[in-house]
Amino acid sequence: MNIIKHIFLFTLLASLFFVCSQVFARQSNDVVSKHAGAGRFPLVADAATALVVDDEIEKSVLIATENFQKDVHAVTGKTPDLLKKVALAGHAQVVVIGVVGESSILKKLEKAGKLDLSALKGKWEVFHRQVVQQPFPGVDEALVIAGSDPRGAIFGIYELSEQIGVSPWNWWADVPVKHLEELHVGKQPFTSKEPSAKYRGIFLNDEDWGLQPWAAKTFEPETGDIGPKTYAKIFELLLRLKANFIWPAMHPSTKAFFHYPGNAQMAKSYGVVIGTSHAEPMLRNNVDEWDHDRLGEFNYSINRDQVYKYWDQRVEESQGIDAVYTVGMRGVHDSGMEGAGSTEEAAKILEKVIQDQRGMLEKHIAADAATVPQAFTAYKEVLGIYDAGLDLPTDITLVWPDDNYGYIRRLSDANERRRAGGSGVYYHASYWGRPHDYLWLSSTHPALIREEMMKAYRLEARDIWVINVGDIKPLEYNIQLFLDMAYDVRPFEQPAYVKEHLTAWHKGIFGEQGKAIAEVKWKYYQLGFERRPEFMGWSQTEPTTPVFESAYHPFVAGDEVERRIDAYQAIETDLQEIKSNMDEEYFPAFYQLAYYPVRGASLMNQKFLYRQKALSYQKEGRLSAADYAAKSRVAYDEIVEETAFYNQQLLNGKWNHMMDHAPRGLPVYQDPEIVLAERKPVEHSVGISLERGGIVQGKLPVFNNMTKRKHFFDLYLKSEAEASWQVVSKPDYILLNQSSGVLVPTGQKETRIWVEIDWSKVSRSESKVTGEIHLEVDGQAESVPVELNNMEEAKDVRFVADNGQVIMYAENYSHKNTNGRQSWQLVEGLGHSGAVMGTSPLKQPSVKGDFEAQASLIFEFYLDQRADEVSIDFQALPTHPLTKENGLRLGYSVNGAAVQVLNFETHGRSEEWKQNVLRNAAIKTAQHISLKEGINTLELFWVDPGVLLDIIRIKTCSSLEEGYGLLPETKK
């Protein structure tokens, strides 16, 4: 074994050890038991153990302590006393909660040598938990929860809440609490790590159809808006998730955060850091607060005094609030900055704007602006301004956005990584805008979130992580995943961990049923990755278009329309079975976290895919076309009914107005328009349709002895007359799933006959075999031609050409070459195929030449005849170059020819980029390639870091019928 193999094996074993150790660590942190024991502290036994805090305790810590009181009561029915002084007579055990450097109780314990908290001092949001013997006179022992700062203490409190069985989603997703008579906490000391990302939180956005109407009409009607009562619940959720940061709601439907004085006071009381989005400098909500009639143009070039006063007033108001100030300037609402004639001029204006904004901070907040947290988000056109030479003070945090569809546009290069302010990420899991919104259901794949945010972490974007979550619901799991990563990124280093996390989260809520629910949700995310439910109309917005016919094809790849419908209905069926065995108290959480999103996505797919069948079948004159049109409309009606149940019946309307199945009323959400042409008189009452996609049109695809696939043909009624059919004759090697039947206009109007080959009955001496299936259909003789490709065994080659194409998934390469600097990394769970190959390490510089010497993947495949004018589709994920110094290229060579380079990079909001994000795929095609008979090789070379290759499709025939969905590999 050579040195490279030794290194690889060592790295693999180390990685496995790390994952196992992280899983073990998380399990071992579950220190609460319902049983007493010598090594356990009685949190609740005959009574609940009292909680002790300082008289002068920070209000945010007190609120968390009071919530912990309620949590203990929710679990046990017993409520611990809350003592605000050390008057402890009669208490054998107590729980002490405090902040290092602030708590007089902790100081006494340290001074007495009972506790050593030196490791917490100066740390960010760290907590320590330890049992101390004889802490005070008359007290036997104390469970101490100490925070390095107030949020550290809060996180220590809420972690214990979760360990006793109170989910962070207890209120927001109605996760029930399991009753226990007693609670005993393990005595082993535990100290948390500093969070992986400093500021971690959410952006409430596009709240017009959920959060705002729910707050205004259901939860907080006294305010009639998202006000202090709603924010209190949001802040509690964030802190229970160990987050600390929020960009408040800011759409026209909602008054500005500072409009209601109680909002800012609530943030201060809870200890949550306030920021504002990329379009809202200096804590201002321009949409609500900039009065054009009174203040004039929002233009710093011609109206500086008014804009300056507007910002300066808010900075003065924000004294005493923990905040991250967004600097810079855009238009009033998510539009470009006014007053600049060019990008270069915009950069100069922004430099003056930021200089003035920092002056405001020094006037009102701190003498040195560098000590005040600030963020500059390079969103949309702002990235171009930044690249035009903007002189941005180095203490300001650079926040890199994704492209609104989950792919980070850029990260810091080596020079930018040296900035004192560091960098962060603004990430979308919900979006309003072009090419199409996705505001209804949460369908961003967990593996994509993991990959992109791990990429950010590895390139040191660790100061601000904020995720656009729309209305919060139904993005519960994506929020949990994002914030768990932000708090502790280490276990997510391994791609496989994200599925473990999904499973563990659902098991934590639903027990053993959670594993099956997680399996369903993973399939739901995978189906959504192929095409989001909101994109199933093939429509776009900005400008808004009508819906179009689906690209899923009912006559290609075994009827990919039906296969997708079946895939969704299979996971619906799984959930129905789970629901039938579920305790009633778990149903509300189950409905919100699993059933509604899966059911909604399934119905949206039925709506458009049955519509597609209706439109396709009516072109053939099928009597059944009207039935599929009716099924499409039923699917729409059932979406409306499910949403009404969510809002009005679930939990007696707790979430009324939260769920809207048609945000913005876009065409994709409407009752589908299906116009069927009037059927004309026909000569024959029964028609025949063949599966398509083969080399020869008008025949079934060729049957291949290497891939051994089956294909179908349909018999269908074209008139209202009953008709019988039967197979008269066929070669004995042809197997059919049925051989006779009756088509009835009031019942079964069509039937599908699947054709398979018994290859043991096909002579090996014949390479090309033809035959026919002879039928009698309504008294008419019909035949279906069948062609077989009886290839010679291609030894040592996994992939073969089948019906004019070779399909290979990137993870299934034949060989891999490394060079010690670069590697191709398997990323499990990601991509259309379920795993992609990525070019890493991410900090490795791009290659400028000598491509043949770079790390490579080799694919071998077999053709039974020479093919010229071949094209090769390389399908990658539509990522972006990692930094401004990188591209997004890979090299390829066919049969040892000179290396050619492909570039997956897109620019701006081009049509190519739009199609890429709608289909989660970037496809580049190499053309004019010749392949030889026999074994061919395709070698792919490392050129740029960050390429994620998914699928390779080699097309030896130019007349292939195209569909949309994932094609199976053409492998033996």
Automatic annotation (TrEMBL):
Molecular function GO terms recorded: hydrolase activity
InterPro entries, per the entry: GH115 (IPR031924), GH115_C (IPR041437), GH115_sf (IPR042301), Hex-like_dom2 (IPR029018)
Name listed for the protein in its UniProt record: Gylcosyl hydrolase 115 C-terminal domain-containing protein
Keywords per UniProt: Hydrolase, Signal
Signal peptide span: 1-25
PANTHER family the record matches: GYLCOSYL HYDROLASE 115 C-TERMINAL DOMAIN-CONTAINING PROTEIN, PTHR37842
One example of a Gene Ontology biological process annotation: carbohydrate metabolic process
Pfam families for the chain: GH115_C (PF17829), Glyco_hydro_115 (PF15979)
Domain Gylcosyl hydrolase 115 C-terminal positions: 799-956
Superkingdom of the source species: Bacteria
